[in-house]
Amino acid sequence: MVADLGGDWVGPLTAAGLRPDLPTAWLAEGLLLYLHPHEADSLLTSVTALSAPGSVLAGEYFNRRVRWEDVPDMLSEEEPIARVFLAADRGGPLVEPVPWAAGNGWSATQRDFVDVVAELGRPVPALMAGTGPDALVLWLFHATFGRPRTAG
Ligand SMILES: C[S@@+](CC[C@H](N)C(=O)[O-])C[C@H]1O[C@@H](n2cnc3c(N)ncnc32)[C@H](O)[C@@H]1O
């Protein structure tokens, strides 16, 4: 199924067989940063309306909009991916995942990508290696709808 998340995707998804009466696992990987903040909020509202208790949602996004000066050696300005996520009015929710998800009844945990890669012994990508108040932070989150997450 293909749909523009800025338009009607709920109709096509339910027509394709999604069962809102059953728990659903949603993965928004590499997605939210492409959306306007209001589109990200709308997406969460729609996901919530389709989520039975016990549904889970995971994803990631940056703490702030990615700017051209953050990625000078990584992308050509001509690449469509760069033009989309570097657009001034995008970037995703732009508030931390825990309160963002809680606003719609989700119980979330979030982690800084840098901490996760350090635990795994992996290098920190240059994009996330900055420090200071203007540093890019990539938040990874996992949320459960309708009841608190169980340990493990
Ligand atoms: C970096 S890719 C991540 C893809 C996915 N995680 C995967 O592994 O296939 C970004 C994806 O976001 C999708 N995307 C961005 N904006 C969208 C929108 N408004 N509606 C639907 N999809 C969108 C693009 O089509 C692209 O497939």
What can you tell me about this protein's structure?
- This protein has 152 residues and is an alpha+beta fold.
- It has one domain (22-145): 3-Layer(aba) Sandwich (Rossmann fold), CATH 3.40.50.
- The chain has five helices and four strands; from the N terminus they run αβαβααβαβ.
- The chain has helices at residues 10-15, 37-49, 80-85, 97-102, 113-119, and strands at residues 25-28, 56-62, 106-112, 138-145.
- A four-stranded mixed sheet has the order 1-2-4-3.
- The chain is globular, with a radius of gyration of 16 Å.
- The mean pLDDT is 90.
- The structure holds S-adenosylmethionine.
- Residues 4-6, 29-31, 34 line the site of S-adenosylmethionine (SAM).
- Residues 4-6, 29-31, 34 line the site of S-adenosylmethionine.
